[in-house]
Amino acid sequence: MNVEKIMSELQRKNPGESEFLQAVTEVLESIAEFVNANPQYDKAGIIERMVEPDRILTFKVSWVDDSGKVHVNRGYRVQFNQAIGPYKGGLRFHPSVNLSILKFLGFEQTFKNSLTTLPMGGAKGGSDFDPKGKSNGEIMRFCQSFMLELRNIIGPEMDVPAGDIGVGGREIGFMYGMYKKLVREHVGVLTGKGLNWGGSLIRPEATGFGGVYFGAEMLKTKGTDYKGKVVTLSGFGNVAWGAALKLVELGAKVVTISGPDGYIYDADGMDAKKIDYLLELRDSNQDIVAPYAKEFPNAKFFPGERPWGVKCDVAFPCAIQNELNENDAKKLVENGCIMIGELSNMGCTPEAIEVLQKNKVLYAPGKAVNAGGVAVSGLEMSQNSMKYNWSREEVDQKLHTIMCNIHEACVKQGTEKDGYINYVKGANVAGFIKVANAMLDQGIV
Ligand code: 2IT
User: In angstroms, what is the span from residue 346 Cα to ligand 1's centroid?
Assistant: First the structure.
């Protein structure tokens, strides 16, 4: 496989799509050795076929705000790869959303979903709609309008969207309601549904819990665990919330969260009450963390800064792509941080990853660390198909097993000669094998 040739062709076809090109470059560089040792993949054009999405739908989303003003947003669904199961992946509502970001996310999702061992293909979608400051009614009307178009290409055996940034239980509810009204079927077409209408226990916690379970396996390779460890988190949404809950349960001290307005340093560490408060912050629809320092006056707010300069043992970026750069990585290493787990998708820049790997710090990429969210989405699909619900313990146990298995797959494919575990290589090769072999079996389609 000639990575340079594939990348220059990809640049020509996808000009200026920096996030998408970044995600593909990372994968191709880390699987090149494996692919070159297994010529059947190149012969069948697997790489060229994997980097091209199956199809992309973009559509107009018109809606009316509370004052009667008309707005037009753009909606998207990128159906990337269907080799191992129906398209599956979240919807992101954020003003930064564009095709490059959704293609990077859909591409990553294909590998992540493969790692879960569940039968799910890769997709991503969303809109440049900004939920910040919107009323409940505005969000409902937007979601309804969005679903009027999206319904044409989704279905329980075709494509099963879920949440991502800006899309939580409330938005899934509004979209599900409209889908059901249009199609007249009550089916498992979205995941992250409410518990009374087809949702799964543990789905809200799953991304955070899964990441902490994966991190526990990473720490185990160094003979240690979370007890007494100081942990920095970025973000304050669903992912950071789930991670904080599990980290505190396992004896870690969580000292930071962050938002677009800056970060909070809470030297006392978070407890159940403070973690609960994250839900209030999120429900306020303001996208800020500053009020935390008013609610808990021992905590300090640092406007406009990210939390990576805070001394810690473990860091979990939980916010957005490229939120941790080369300088941040250097600071973390200097401060003695031993592990970075990406809970956000592509949270670290390529330069940051290089710094972490050069310093032999434990580092694992989003497609492995944050796979717990989509894994429990897969379990929600299974429960919907069976028309049955598993208990909290059953789902949590399955999630734990899946995360341990992903870790094992990374160790198998990513351990280098000196014993250092290259989780990027491990996750990419392990994720690739299942999808690539399915594509080989299914012919050139
Ligand atoms: O990035 C992700 O894996 C998600 N946003 C969850 C996707 C899903 O289908 O649950």
Answer: 13
Q: What is the pLDDT of residues 79-100, one digit of tens each?
A: 999 999 999 999 999 999 999 9
Which residues are the active-site residues?
124
Please tell me if the domain spanning 3-187 has the same topology as the one spanning 206-360.
yes
Superfamily of structural domain 206-360: NAD(P)-binding Rossmann-like Domain (3.40.50.720)
Q: What angle do CA 315, 161, 189 make, to 5 degrees?
A: 135
Nearest atom (ligand 1) to Cα of 374: 10
CB of 91 closer than 6 A to ligand 1? no
For the whole model, what pTM was predicted?
Answer: 0.98
The pLDDT value given to residue 173: 98
Closest-lying ligand 1 atom to the alpha carbon of residue 160: 9
Low-confidence ranges of the chain (pLDDT < 50): none
Q: Which of 108, 214, 239, 370 has most ligand 1 atoms within 8 Å of CB, for mutation?
A: 370
For residue 374 and ligand 1, the question of a CB distance below 6 A is answered with yes
Contact, 292 vs 281, CB < 8 A?
Answer: yes
- Nearest-CA residue for ligand 1 atom 4 is 90
At residue 382, the pLDDT reads 98
Sign of CA dihedral 101, 151, 174, 120: negative
Q: Is 373 in the pocket of ligand 1 (CB under 6 A)?
A: yes
CA distance 287 to 289: 7
The answer to whether 257 and 265 are in contact (CB under 8 A) is no
What digits encode the pLDDT tens for the residues 220-264? Answer: 999 999 999 999 999 999 999 999 999 999 999 999 999 999 999
What is the domain partition of the chain in residue ranges? 3-187, 206-360
> Which fold does the domain 3-187 belong to in CATH?
Rossmann fold (3.40.50)
Q: Where are the alpha helices (DSSP H) in 250-295?
A: 272-283, 291-295
pLDDT, residue 1, reads 87
